Amino acid sequence: MKDLHRDPDSPGTGNETRLPADTILASSTDPRGIIRYANPQFCEIAELSLDEMVGAPHRIVRHRDMPKGLFYLLWDRLKRGLPVCAYIKNRTASDGVYWVFATITSTSDGFLSVRIRPNAPFFETIRTVYRDLRAQEQAGRSPEQSARALTEALADLGFADYDAFMQAALAEECRLRTSAAEIGNCCLPRLADLSALLASAEERADTVGRDFVKVRSEPVNMRILAGRLEGASGALGTISQNYDIMAAEMQHLVQKLRCRDAGALGRMRMALDRGRFQAQVALLMNQAAEQPDFDGATQLADQAERLMADSKASLAEISAAARSIPDICRQLRHRINGLNVVKLLCRVESGRMQNADTGLNGIIERLENFHAATETNLAALSTKADQIKANSMLF
After folding, report:
1. Residue 70: which CATH number?
2. Which is it for the CA torsion 232, 238, 241, 247, positive or negative?
C-alpha cells in the first residue's frame, strides 16, 4: 500500500512523464475534494490503484512546485459554482512528475474533472508564471496574495481576467488535440463562425464609438467661436446647446450597444464565450466517457449533455440580444438626422457672417464626415445583427 498521506511539499525525484496525446484523465470528487472514482488512465499515470484513489483527497497527486495561489483561486471559483481550467503539475506515487491541462466543473453533489496533455503555447508561459509565484510564496506571500499576483501576471500577458485566460487556453488546447471529424460532429465550427460575425459587429460598433468621441467636443468648439466672433454668440450658443442635448442621447444609445456588462454586444460576447466554453468541456467529457473500462463514463456523458444544453441556452441569449441591435441603430440614425439640422444651422450662420475663416466650416466638414461614416457603420451593424440572430437560431 502506497503512503496516501505523504507531504506534497516533500522532496521528489522530478522524473517527468508526458501524457499520450489521446489520453484523458478523469475523476469525480465530493464537495471537499475527496475522490469518488478515477478512470484507469488516471490510476496508471498516478501509479495508484483505484482502491488507493477512492476515499483519498485529490491533493495526494499535488506537486510541491505548484503555487498555492492557484488552488486558492481554483477553490474560490468552484465554491461560487464557476468552472475552472488550469495547467497543473502533479506527482506520481514514485515522485515522478506529469503536467495536465485540467478542466473542473460542478455537479449536484461534487465536482467532475477531465485532464489532457498540455500542448498550447500558453503552457510554457504559465510554467514561468508559476515559478515566480512559488518563489514569492516561499518569501512569505499568502495564498490569497499569490492568487491576486496570478491574475495580475495574466493581465500583463494581455488577459483581462482569469476567465479570459481560461477561455483562450481551453480553445487552443481543444483545437490542437481534437480531430477534424470530432469537431465536425459538434457545434464548435458554428460557434466559431458566430464568434467571427460578432467580432465584425463589435468592430463596427467600436468605430461608431470612436467617431462619436471625436465629434462630441464640437459644442465646446462652437461656444469658443461664439465668444470670439462678434454678433454670433446667441445663435451659436443655441446651436451648441441643441447639439449637446442630442449628443447626450446618442452617447446613451452607443453605450446600449457597447457597454461590456449591460450593452447588447457585451451581453452577446459573454453569452458566446460561456456557450463555447461549455461546448468545449462537453466535447472533452464525451471523449473521456468513450474510453474503455471506466465505471464513471455515464456520469461524464450526463454532465456533457447538461453542458451542451447550457451552451444552447447561451445561444438563445445571443439571439435575444441581437434582436435589440437594429432598433438601437434606428434610434441612432434618428439622432443623426437631428444633428443634420445642427449642421444646417451652422452652415446658415457661416453664410450670414460671410467669413470663410470663422472655424464653422471645419465643424461642418467634421459633422458631415461623421454622419456619412456612421450611417454606413450602423447599416452594416444592423446587417451583422440579423446574421447573428439567424445563425444562433440554427442550433
Report:
1. 3.30.450.20
2. negative
What's this model's pTM, rounded to 2 decimal places? 0.81
Rounded to an integer, what distance in angstroms lies between the CA atom of residue 191 and that of residue 170? 14
Closest CA to 194 of 310, 332, 311, 284: 311
Domain boundary among 115, 147, 177: 177
The grid coordinates listed for 379 are 447599416
CA distance linking residue 164 with residue 160, whole number of Å: 6
Residue ending a domain, among 133, 157, 177, is 177
Specify the number of domains making up the chain: 2
Burial (CB < 10 A; 0-12, 13-18, 19+), residue 282, is buried
DSSP state of 295: T
* Residue 323, all three cell numbers: 434582436
User: Mapped to the 3 state alphabet, what secondary structure does 76-111 carry?
Assistant: HHHHCCCCEEEEEEEECCCCCEEEEEEEEEEECCEE
Please list, in sequence order, all residues whose beta carbon lies within 8 angstroms of the beta carbon of residue 331, skipping any fewer than 6 positions away: 253
* C-alpha grid cell, residue 309: 444544453
pLDDT bin (cut points 50, 70, 90) of residue 31 is: very high
Burial of residue 161 (number of CB atoms within 10 Å: 0-12, 13-18, 19+): exposed
**Which residue has cell 487552443?**
172
Residue 68 and residue 50: Cα distance in Å, rounded?
27
Q: Which residues contact 306 (CB under 8 A, 6 or more apart)?
A: none
- CB-based burial of residue 40 (10 Å sphere; 0-12 exposed, 13-18 middle, 19+ buried)? middle
| Ramachandran class of 118: left when φ > 0, alpha when ψ lies in -120 to 50, beta otherwise | beta
Residue 184: exposure state from Cβ atoms within 10 A (0-12, 13-18, ≥19): exposed
Q: pLDDT tens digits for 195-245?
A: 999 999 999 999 998 888 877 777 666 666 666 655 555 566 677 777 777
